[in-house]
Specification:
The complex is a heterodimer. Chain A has helices at about 10-30, 70-80, 120-130, 140-150, 160-170, 180-190, 245-260, 270-280, 290-300, and strands at about 35, 40, 55, 65, 85-95, 105-115, 135-140, 200-205, 215, 220-230, 235-240, 285-290. Chain A is of the alpha+beta class. In chain A, the strands form two sheets. In chain A, strands 1, 5, 6, 7, 8, 9, 10, 11 and 12 form a nine-stranded mixed β-sheet that branches. Chain A has one domain: BirA Bifunctional Protein, domain 2, CATH 3.30.930.10. In chain A, about 40% of the residues are buried. The model of chain A has no long low-confidence stretch (mean pLDDT about 95). The N and C termini of chain A lie close together (about 10 Å). The longest helix of chain A is centred in the N-terminal third of the chain and has 20 residues, at about 10-30. Chain A is globular, with a radius of gyration of 20 Å. Chain B folds into three domains: about 5-65, SH3 type barrels; about 70-125, Beta Barrel (OB fold (Dihydrolipoamide Acetyltransferase, E2P)), CATH 2.40.50; about 130-185, Nucleic acid-binding proteins (OB fold (Dihydrolipoamide Acetyltransferase, E2P)). Chain B has one helix at about 95-100; strands spanning about 5, 15, 20-30, 40-45, 50-55, 60-65, 65-75, 80-85, 90-95, 110-120, 120-125, 130-140, 150-155, 160-165, 175, 180-185. Chain B is elongated and about 75 Å long. The chains are: A alpha+beta, B mainly beta.
Chain lengths: ~325, ~190
Amino acid sequence: MADWQPTASLAMLQERARLLAAIRAFMSDRAVMEVDVPVLSTATVTDPHLESFVVTSPQAASGNYYLMTSPEFYLKRVLAAGSGPIYSLGPAFRAGDCGARHQPEFTMLEWYRPEWTIAQLMDEVAELVHGAIAGPVAQKTYRQAFLDHAGIDPHRADLAQLRALAQSRLSPAFDSDDRYTWLDLLFSHLVEPQLAGKVFVTEFPATQAALAQTASDTHGNAIAMRFELYINGIEIANGYQEEREPTVLVKRFAENLALRAANRQSQPPVDELFLAAMRAGMPACAGVALGVDRLLMVATGAPAIAAVVPFAFGQP
Amino acid sequence: MATYSTSEMKNGLKVMIDGEPCNILENEHVKPGKGQAFNRVKVKFLRTGRVLEKTFKSGDSLEGADVVDCDMQYLYNDGEYWHFMEPESFEQHQADAKTVGDASQWLKEQDTCIVTLYNGAPLAVTPPNHVVLEVVETDPGLRGDTATGGTKPAKLSTGAVVKVPLFMNVGDVIKVDTRTGEYLGRAKE
């Protein structure tokens, strides 16, 4: 008989409904307005490590659409229109493998705080998460996390040192001349699994800034004003002091597309309406995206994301 | 042979790694939020039985291995080689001691086992999960002692030594689980 049943238990669906209601109450109490932005767009992100689903329309002339990997571009257009604090709670889509922590469609909470710093936003993230899972929150820089768990300075180590460390501690079946590939491998395999409890990781390398502002740390390293929240080694949220300067953003998109071309990846169209909104002016703000399914997973102790979503993708 | 990308590396797929045929046991997708995605793959090297973890960049590909599992009848051992026959085609294959490995102690003539072929030649032999074999050597049975649960070693017709209940005698026929080497019971043959 075909297995038509939901992949989450009814008890889990009740937990899930409670979490979604608690998030909306949290935002409503703080006068953060919900905006239900579209998931379909004519442009998408250029990130070298994100792939958007491409949607074809039966009307040939209208070209391709993309399913949004996050509500970020739409929400920033709302901010530029003068909305004040806003959030979105809904589906996001990323093409890629399914796994214990990955589904191609997942539920994302994303919110923006005009005039706030990321330090203020991190406090609010900690408060929101505390409602789902109790316990203290630690904080360390990307550099310190690397020093503590991999014994190497990620900003200063050269290609040969990173490669040698990866080859001695892990079994990479590939070679690479890209420092950042080794940093990603070491961070995801040696550092992340060691992040016990709730940990904010801050000051990522400037090359991993995405849409965050960049700065220098106290050691003179170029860093991104970006944080990630990990709970028991699982990445839960990613926040930025938002970069607003259109020329910087245009340059980053161009660099992303050049990198994608070098890796023989598709060349998605740049979101010109987002850039137009940045040129019109978006207020200084901090913003964060949080994986709601993963939060529910760590809060309930579920072994895999498939157990917390109503219908997991790619399940028998 | 076809090539397979990391997303196609499912449990049971046979691929070539470092020039050796391997069986994929597990494949875990690991992706830092803004970074490169990886696949941590657990593989078993079919020739040596060694199990290793290898990390690939997502999207990398591997060549498939020409490995097939065939049901074959075990015919005989000529002192150097073990001979097997495909029941449909009557095609015969011979395997050396290294290939047969621990399976040799369970192989009884006429029994059907699994011969893993790599590029058409035997790579490994898996005995049936349950075999029925005769006890050829053991201490004399203790009459009436069927309840104490004690055991003693017994040598079987194929050379395997298993623990059997105290009441078993030479000439008795027993059923054994080849995966654990455990005595399952007396067999009626």
